[in-house]
Amino acid sequence: MVLSVKVVQARVGPGNPSLGDGGDPKVLRLMRGHANFSEYVPLILVLMGLLELNGLPTWALHGLGATLLAGRLLHGYALSFTQGFVFGRSAGIALTLLPLLVGGGLCLYHGVQGL
After folding, report:
1. CA dihedral defined by 9, 10, 12, 17, rounded to 10 degrees?
2. d(CA 33, CA 104)
3. Structural domain boundaries of the chain?
């Protein structure tokens, strides 16, 4: 929600782009922070749901979720609230890709086991 509000705030007012980024690097950065969240989080949540249905232990699901949360907070902060927080952006995407890779791998493992 916070990422959406930041994009909307950047588009309000005379001269601000109502659609797209209008060539403004700040608006583009805000839009990418929101879009990046939308691109990764739903898929990871679906993977986690499938893993829960396959009996993955609660501690493992919490670990995946906590890693995702930390990654999204770092990345969202880096893109939507700062201009040069490279560590937040890099660590954020790494902490987002980790549950994607682990969750995907575990789903494949459970799928192959069921064959």
Report:
1. -150
2. 23
3. 2-113
pLDDT tens, 50-61?
Answer: 999 999 999 999
Tokens of 50: 């499938």
CA 53 to chain centre: 23
Using CA atoms, how far apart are residues 95 and 27, in angstroms rounded to an integer?
Answer: 24
d(CA 87, CA 75): 9
User: pTM higher than 0.85 for the full model?
Assistant: yes
**Nearest CA to 84 among 42, 26, 20, 37?**
26
Asked if residue 80 lies in contact with residue 29, where contact means CB atoms within 8 angstroms, the answer is yes
> Residue 101 has what pLDDT?
98
Phi, psi of 88 (to 5 degrees): -60, -40
Q: Which residue has the tokens 């890779």?
A: 101
User: 2-113 has which CATH code?
Assistant: 1.20.120.550
Instruction: Give per-residue pLDDT as tens, 19-40.
Output: 888 888 888 888 888 899 999 9
